[in-house]
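Our consortium's second objective concerns turning raw sequence data into structural hypotheses that experimental partners can test. To show how far this objective has progressed, the report includes one record in full. It was chosen at random from the queue rather than selected for favorable results. The single chain below, 217 residues long, was entered without modification.
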Amino acid sequence: KRLSASSPPTSSELTHLRARLHRSLRQYPDFPSPGILFEDILPLFADALLHKSLLRALELQVIDSFGQDQTPDVIVGLEARGFLFAPSLALKLGAGFVPVRKQGKLPGPTETASFKKEYGEDFFQIQSDAIKPGQRVLVVDDIIATGKDQSLLTCFSSTDGYVGGSAAAAGSLVKKLGGTLLGYIFILELDFLKGRDKLDAPAHTLLSSQEEVGDKT
């Protein structure tokens, strides 16, 4: 039996939660190399109330993006930081959780998809029976930050690869298993890197652009 949202969604609640989460991000100039402004989402998990706010905001984002009657049957989380919140979000939405992992990490029969990295190619895998044909599936990860500037790509990638490319690879695995790919949800998007251009389904983010995050007044 599917669970319903914890309470009816409101745009004002989502706006308030986004502002609170924005203010709680940390920025580290010149990390890990000069000229890079590193966005740190880990404070959102270090405080219980912030963590709860993050999950509620993600829940509202899903409902706002896809509709109350089109919430996913399955949440797919990408290794590694997608695992921080994907299972909890799935629980709130009454959906199942399925991990997508690097090649060789999952037991049993798997499907494989490749994605490009700065210095070559990597592979994601999903268990072959993880998604049933026709199930509605949402792919989630922490940051979408793919672009042409490879120094920025390396610094912001949560999977040590091209986040847009790795998310797209996860989407292709969903389709291989016969799932219906609703789209992608990310906590943070660095707009100037144009990561969503690589994705073949709607992409939605809670927080976007360093200009907005930088204003913490």
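The partners drew two points from this record. Confidence is low (pLDDT under 50) at residues 146-163, 211-217. The beta strands are 26-29, 37-40, 74-78, 96-102, 110-117, 120-127, 136-144, 180-189, 203-208. Both points have been shared with the crystallography group to help prioritize constructs.
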